[in-house]
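Field reference: sequence -> structure
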Amino acid sequence: MKAFKLRSTGESTRIYCNQCYSVLGVDHPTYQNNVFLNFPDHCANHADLSRPLNAYLNMSDYSAAIGPLPTEDMPLFVSTDCAPERKRFLWLPDVANSFKESSGPPGRVTLASLKNGVLQSRPGMGVCGRGR
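Structure field:
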């Protein structure tokens, strides 16, 4: 796997499989090692995605090509670029808890540790299981 920034000024780092180029996850300083942003439809993963949904984000990127608008009774956020929307998003209790600063070193593998090379794929194999 390999970590990339899309823009030199960007704060997000995307972790890609260097064999199939699937985005495995995204790290951002705001996540405080508490959030793992992944795209379940982009690659096979076995993560526990059973946590209840709290909000729809970045609806400005949503189009009819993606599908119909969400129908769940859930807060929608067009963008968190504007301060009032970001504040409204961070007021959601589960969101506030997710983005709080850690009280100590993480007791689990974090995306930041992957990014820093703590985990390596097996020699001759990509992280997606494909041979090199």
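Note: The chain has three helices and three strands.
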